[in-house]
Design a protein that fits this description.
Structural class: mainly alpha
CATH class of the largest domain: Mainly Alpha
Keywords: DNA-binding, Repressor, Transcription, Transcription regulation
Helix content: 55-70%
Number of strands: 0
Protein name: AcrR family transcriptional regulator
InterPro entries: Homeodomain-like_sf, HTH-type_TetR-like_transc_reg, HTH_TetR, Repressor_TetR_C, Tet_transcr_reg_TetR, Tet_transcr_reg_TetR-rel_C_sf
CATH architecture of the largest domain: Orthogonal Bundle
Radius of gyration: 22 Å
Strand content: under 5%
CATH superfamily of the largest domain: Tetracycline Repressor, domain 2
GO molecular function: DNA-binding transcription factor activity; transcription cis-regulatory region binding
Shape: flat
Pfam families: TetR_C_1, TetR_N
CATH topology of the largest domain: Tetracycline Repressor, domain 2
Order of helices and strands: HHHHHHHH
Distance between the termini: 72 Å
C-alpha cells in the first residue's frame, strides 16, 4: 500500500506538537501556520481538528490540568487535600511554564479544570469550611501556585559578584543564588505553603469556636 502523501493527524499528536513549540519557543511562537510546519502538513488540515488556536490551547490546558491531583480531599482532611493539590498543581505548571498564562486565565469550560475546582470546593465545604471561605481558599491557593510557577526568584539575580559587592552589602551572596535556584524555589514554595496552611488552621479553629463545631 502506498504511503499517504501527508502525515495522518490526530488530536493528541497536534496537542503534543503544539506543546513542544510552546515549551521550546514560547507561547507567542505558536500559530496554526507554525504548527503546520512543525507537523509537515498544510495549515488547512489542522482546522478539521481545531477551529482556532484558542480551542487548541484550551484542549492542551485541559490535558495538563488532568494531571493535577485532588484526591487528597477524599480523606476529609482539608489541610492534606490542599497540600496534595498545591504541590501537584505547581508541578504541572512548572513542567510547562510558558503555558501558565493560559492555564492561569481560569477554567472557563475546560472539563478537567472544572472537575478539580469542584473537588477542591466540595472537599473544603465537606470539611467544615463555609462556602465563601472555600472559594477564597481556592483562589488564594491558585495565587500562591501560579506565582511560584510563573517566575523564579533565585534566577532573577545576576551571577556577577561585582553587581552587589560595594553598593548592596546585604546582597553580597546574591550572585550565588542561581546555582541553587531549583532548591531555593522549591523550599520557598514549601515555606509559603506551610505558612499559608498554618494561617488557615488558625482561622478554621476560630470558625469552630464561633459555630460550636
Amino acid at each position: 500500500m502506498a504511503r499517504p502523501r501527508t502525515p495522518i493527524l490526530s488530536v493528541s499528536g497536534i496537542r503534543a506538537a503544539a506543546l513542544a513549540v510552546i515549551d521550546r519557543e514560547g507561547l507567542a511562537a505558536l500559530s496554526m501556520r507554525r504548527l503546520a510546519q512543525e507537523l509537515d502538513v498544510q495549515a488547512a488540515s489542522l482546522y478539521s481538528h481545531y477551529r482556532t488556536k484558542e480551542d487548541l490551547l484550551a484542549d492542551i490546558a485541559n490535558e495538563i490540568m488532568a494531571e493535577v491531583d485532588v484526591s487528597g480531599f477524599a480523606t476529609g482532611d482539608w489541610r492534606h487535600g490542599l497540600t496534595v493539590w498545591a504541590r501537584s498543581y505547581r508541578a504541572a505548571l512548572a513542567a510547562h511554564p510558558n503555558l501558565v498564562p493560559v492555564i492561569a486565565h481560569g477554567p472557563g469550560r475546560r472539563e478537567a479544570a472544572l472537575r478539580r475546582a469542584d473537588a477542591v470546593h466540595g472537599g473544603l465545604v465537606s470539611a467544615g469550611w463555609p462556602a465563601r471561605h472555600a472559594t477564597m481558599i481556592g483562589a488564594s491557593t491558585k495565587y500562591l501556585v501560579v506565582g511560584a510557577a510563573i517566575n523564579s526568584f533565585a534566577r532573577g539575580f545576576d551571577a556577577d559578584v561585582q553587581v552587589y559587592r560595594d553598593r548592596y552589602p546585604n546582597l553580597s551572596q546574591a550572585h550565588r543564588l542561581a546555582e541553587h535556584a531549583a532548591e531555593i524555589d522549591r523550599d520557598s514554595f514549601e515555606l509559603a505553603l506551610s505558612a499559608f496552611l498554618d494561617g488557615l488552621s488558625r482561622i478554621y479553629e476560630g470558625l469552630g469556636a464561633d459555630t460550636g463545631r
